[in-house]
Amino acid sequence: MNYKTKDLAPIAIPHGPPVESTSEYFKSLMESARMVKKYPVWDVARPTPQVLMEQARRDLMEADVKLALKREEEKRNRVIMDAKWEDLRRKENLLKESFISFNKFIRENQEKRDRAERKMQADNDVLERKTKETEAMRKRVIEMEEIKKLMEKQVKDYTIYEDYLMSVVNNYPEFKQPLDVLNRYEALAAAKNTLADRQERDLEMLEDARQEIASLTEEKKLFIMGLNNTLASLRWRYDKIRNRVIKWELALNRLKETAARRHVELCHVKSAIWSLYVKICKQKGLSIDVDTNDFEQQLVVIMRALLELRRIYRIAQKRSKEKDVESRE
After folding, report:
1. In terms of C-beta density within 10 A (0-12 exposed, 13-18 middle, 19 or more buried), how is residue 327 classed?
2. Separation between Cα atoms, residue 322 and residue 199, nearest integer Å
3. What is the Cα–Cα distance from 58 to 46, expressed in whole angstroms?
4. Residue 270 burial (10 A CB sphere; 0-12, 13-18, 19+)
């Protein structure tokens, strides 16, 4: 017999001592008590479609009544709102008119204020300028007073010079007044300046002449140094050329000596060739018809004679060898 087991959650068995699981147990009891338990209603009649339709009709009638009430309320609110809007428009127009008049009043006051401020600023500028001018005039007056005091002091200090000039005029009849003394002084000072200028000009001319002489001296020194350098270069070239001349003269002397030796040797050779030629001609009984200076023909004759002698020598040597062979046999 097979038993079917339901799929139930496994029972959680706490592990450990039971004292530690007490708190968990009480927590589970409190949560079970707080849970809302809803039991099924079995004693209430179930609604039918007619009942539901009647209930819906009753709800619709209630909604129509509420809608009519809301419409009436909306009409009353509309009338109230229109009245309020009309009042607001009237107040807006009044506010615009009052704002325009107030703006005009403000603009006029602003223009008056601007004119007053400009006038006040102009008055302040004039006052400041006049104050500065007054201060400048006060400073000018103070400066003029100081200048006056200084001039009075200078006049007082220069009184001794005036007394001196008057004494000079009284002692020297050529001066009629102190101005003549001053004119004489100015004339002498001008003459002194003229002489000083002339002396300075003469000194400048003298300095220019001295500088020119120094420049010419320096230029001549440089020119002489250049000539000395040129002379040294020419001397060096002269010594070099003289050494080359001496070298070539020595070479020429050596060539002359060599040529003289060669000439002597050539003369000896010529005489030997001529003697040999004459001797060969005499031995062969030939006539001596070759010029003394024609060495080529002489050498040709000598060469032919030598070739004949060589051939004769070879023939003689060959015959001597044959005789030796025959004698041995």
Report:
1. exposed
2. 136
3. 19
4. middle
The full set of domain ranges for the chain reads: 62-157
16 phi-psi bin (left φ>0, alpha ψ -120 to 50, beta other): left
**Cβ within 8 Å of residue 168, ≥6 positions away:** 175, 178, 181
Q: How far apart are CA 24 and CA 13, in angstroms?
A: 12
Would you say 181 and 167 are in contact if contact means Cβ atoms under 8 Å apart? no
* Least-confidence region, from 54-58, 61-65, 143-147: 54-58
Residues 36-54, mean pLDDT to the nearest whole number: 63
41 — pLDDT class (breaks 50, 70, 90): low
Question: Letter for the amino acid at 186?
Answer: E
18-30 tens-digit pLDDT = 666 667 767 777 7
What is residue 14's predicted lDDT score, i.e. its pLDDT? Answer: 58
Instruction: State the Cα torsion 228-233-236-240 to the nearest 10°.
Output: -160
Q: Is 229 helix (H, G, I), strand (E, B) or coil?
A: helix
